[in-house]
Description:
Number of strands: 0
Number of helices: 5
Distance between the termini: 31 Å
Shape: elongated
Largest sheet: none
Oligomer: single chain
Radius of gyration: 19 Å
Amino acid sequence: MDYKKTNAPVNTMTRDMMKLSVDTGNIYETTMIIAKRANQVAMDMKQDLGKKLQEFASYNDSLEEVFENREQIEISRYYEKLPKPTLIAAQEYEDKKLYFRNPAKDKGTF
């Protein structure tokens, strides 16, 4: 899922964990699913931001000069305004857009 086009809320909101854990039957397992997806989204966002900011990197050795680049500032502001990875992951889980499986539970089905 593209994190730029998500309908996740920008602000933190309270969620009923009992409703969220209906699929797994375990609150902790549901939390781990959302947490692992949030880590994936965060790494994806970090790599994407790094690639975009790399275009503006200057390789000067002088510490006295600090260059202010408007495009770089705008890109950083855009990423700051995006929903946080945990909110994106929780929204994906609520919308049933996440695929997850527990190998420990699937072990007995072979």
